[in-house]
Design a protein that fits this description.
The protein is α+β, with helices and mostly antiparallel strands. It has four domains: about 120 residues, no CATH class; about 100 residues; about 55 residues; about 160 residues, no CATH class. Helix content is about 50%, strand content about 10%. The strands form two sheets. Strands 1-5-4-3 form a four-stranded antiparallel beta sheet. Strands 2-7-6 form a three-stranded antiparallel beta sheet. The protein is globular. The termini are far apart.
Amino acid sequence: MKLWPFVVVLVGLVLGGTVYILVAPEYGASTRSGRELPRLPLDRIAAPLPPRFAGPLPSRVEGFHHELEKGPPLSYVRARLLEGDQEMGAKFLSVLRQAAASARSLDELWGTYGVVLGLGDHGDDKPPDDMGFLKGVHDEGVPCAWLRERLADATKEHPLLTELLWRKLVRCPGSETTALFAREDAPITWVLDHHGLFDSPRFTPALESAVRRILNQGREELFVTAMYWLSRYQEPMAQGLREELWRRASGEVRAEWERKEAMKDELARWREEEQAWKCPPIPNRPEGVDALTVQRCLEKWVASNWAATARFAMSASRSPELLDAPKSLATVRNFSSLAEMKAWARERKLVPAATPTLEDEPRSLYLSAIMRQARRAFIINLATRTFPRRHDELLVTLAWKVRPELAEVVFEQLPPKTPPADLFQPPSSDEYTLRAYADGQRFSVKARNSHSFEDIGAVVGLLNQVLESRGSPHRFAVLDSQVSEVQVVFGPEAALREADARGLWRLGNGREVLVQAEALKEKNIRRLLGEIPF
């Protein structure tokens, strides 16, 4: 009997098994722990809340910021309103009424207490931004319950105050808010804004009321916006109102509408072409596959054959050409389905157990996108034109987003005495001091006096030290980035690091992210000035 055919078959099976082992999906627990979260030098002493936190609030626009130094920081006022503090609510309403009476315009009133009522996000024709920390519209630390209570009967309030309250209410979700915007006294512009943010899937009584008032008042400047929203609904009432708007529209308004419709048609054609872009079959090897193809085709490959896509993802993880491939490849490599990834995230407490069913949207192959749906990850724009930077407002906002982990913690910042250095100068040595008062202790860290950006590393570092002192396993972490728009995630430290070890994201250092964002901005400006080539 000849043994060589048997030996050849045996060797073939062994080699085949070896190859499969090398490229087979590695589902299950990771044996690595991931990158450590950075720790900052911190000063911690026993200290009560300073007396000024119980001090007076300014009541006039004139001299507002000078008087503000004698009382509590505005971030503290917002935090107390968010927590439902009735005493602070009454105190704030009193001084807000007086400030409105002394203001000559909405801009002036906005520049005093606007930030207390939530972070702004406004166009050029509206009051200037308070800040723009979080990318999104849902409850960004806006005291919605307080606003709704004030607007339940706003007929006796000063017109500027009423306008401010309505404008801030635009940021509040929920049926109670939508019901307020259905009132006849609700400003039409803000009704349309709120509808676009929260109610666009439905033809609501608020939208119907607003359109009827647009027609009755002849508000032609709002015709195009109203027709846009009405064109999305098939209800006879919506179609009838749209036809009436068209009938009354001037030639100029009709021309503007037709231009927008042409742009919409062009966008629809572009999307069809994008969807028709033919993806290659699921590759067996990474050679010849670029990151753009992976980004465009991964969803289709996964829908076709998750296991085959996972084998490609395993081989791609070792390819230098695909180092910039989307992190969603790691999801396919680590899990046998999207449902398994979501279950893993819940098991690791990266999303709360009570989180509603998460949508299977395209970006949900990213763990960070799943966490954003669950309000456990946030996209934060660090760029700001305001001096001093309002790190304390960002501290309050993040603490509110992850309540109750940081309940009853009070924040403040001591700004530097001098503005930051010019863009091309060395960083200023005059720093911010960020403080947190919790459980009879005062925690302090230094924050850089950046010429353009918030020091996200100092913010996250302070929050994490307070969490650690309270015995919480949860931490904030900054994901690696070279631009000023960063992602911050929140969850158990072990789970954050495990996700890093699995390649689901790359944990970064907030201080390094700040330096990289500054360097990129300086480089881009030098390019525009012609000092370096594009």
